[in-house]
Amino acid sequence: MDDDEPVLTEATLEEIYHVVREPGFSAYFLLGAEDEVETVSDVDAWVRLPDGSKWTASMLTLDAVAEVLTRWKATGEHGGGAFFACPDLVIVPEPGVPAMTAALREIVAEGPRGTLQPLPDPDAQPSSN
Hints:
By secondary structure, the protein is α+β, with helices and mostly antiparallel strands. 29% of the residues lie in helices and 26% in strands. The protein contains 4 helices and 6 strands, in the order αββββααβαβ.
């Protein structure tokens, strides 16, 4: 190995994600380099429930959705910004991880199925039909 090559190490989840632990779930927010916990308005997250199930959420404010549509209009993506579709979309009324955590708290209390998307268990055996 060259002296100039970076040494790769195994990172912990806490080093990769901003982690919020609640009594009923843990949420892992994948913040970008420019994102701030209090002001992030567009972030992907996943949630782990006490039963071990994992769920995904794409969390955006209405302003963040408008920014994406405006950008797509300029780039021609997704019908020139004619629509925004995302199976695990959660729109929150204000930016920041605290507001997003509050939304997740309510989603988990109501049950995540239908709002969040389940992450498959990587250890599960495929079913033979």
